[in-house]
Specification:
- This protein has a single domain, classed as Porin.
- 5% of the residues lie in helices and 59% in strands.
- It is built from 1 helix and 13 strands.
- A 12-stranded antiparallel beta barrel has the order 1-2-3-4-5-6-7-8-9-11-12-13.
- Strand 8 and strand 9 form a beta hairpin.
- It is globular, with a radius of gyration of 17 Å.
- It starts with a helix and ends with a strand.
């Protein structure tokens, strides 16, 4: 398990590019909500910044199953600084599509997520952006792994139209049917036409816990190449069913 975590982290830790997403620290799986099924995720992240004010980010992410293979979602982002100031931090809209049947005897899932965002310049200097997130995940016995080779796209500014590679990976091992432990790694290698031009990465240890209609993703770790050296996160998923 430890060796597998190191391999997954090595995919994305060595070098990386423009500012990573500070509001949604998550590796996607290849599942979508069932048709007609609503749900909500709450993302709570704490960033301990070097040379800047520490921030707590709270994001609300509702989603809805459009079809058995399609899910529509959105984000409403907020930030609270150590001074107690509450700030609006942008909105995003996403569409996730998946291959209806999993491959290799139900072990491998394939999906893609598209997103467009409008974020105040305090948090994203170019304001308008988006991403294309291919998703491949694997379930093999107690082992779960997912890889998201994300292409982030800024719609304004010097790198507008130059997709930036920001891969994310996750690997966990089930302890019980409702609990798993593992690691998540995040990075950014810069524009595809100038890979390695910038450096940033995060590596987190994570605990996943699930119930009949809820799930938790708890993580903490360290970042390199950016101001938020220490990062802690909590994602609460609520899935009441159709």
């Amino acid at each position: 398990m430890l060796r597998a975590c190191v391999v997954a982290a090595a995919i994305v830790v060595p070098a990386i590019a423009h500012a990573q997403d500070a509001f949604e620290i998550q590796v996607y799986d290849a599942q979508t909500a069932a048709r007609g099924e609503p749900g909500l995720e709450l993302h709570l992240n704490q960033h301990v910044n070097e040379g800047a004010v520490n921030e707590t980010h709270l994001t609300f992410e509702p989603h809805y199953g459009l079809a058995a293979w399609a899910e529509l979602g959105g984000y409403f982002q907020t930030a609270v600084t150590t001074t107690g100031d509450l700030a609006y931090a942008g909105v995003k809209l996403r569409l996730k599509l998946r291959r209806p049947q999993r491959a290799w005897d139900d072990r491998i899932g394939l999906a893609i997520n598209g997103e467009i965002s409008a974020v105040p310049s305090r948090f994203e200097p170019q304001v308008w952006g988006g991403e294309i997130r291919p998703i491949i995940d694997l379930t093999a016995g107690r082992l779960y792994a997912s890889f998201n080779p994300i292409l982030a796209v800024e719609l304004r500014g010097d790198v507008a139209g130059h997709p930036q590679l920001e891969p994310a990976a996750k690997i966990t091992m089930k302890l019980t049917e409702a609990m798993a432990i593992g690691a998540e790694a995040y990075g950014a290698f810069g524009p595809l036409d100038d890979l390695g031009s910038e450096h940033a990465s995060r590596l987190l240890g994570v605990l996943d816990v699930s119930g009949d209609w809820w799930d938790l993703n708890i993580g903490g770790g360290y970042g390199w190449g950016s101001t938020d050296h220490v990062v802690a996160k909590l994602i609460v998923g609520i899935h009441p069913g159709a």
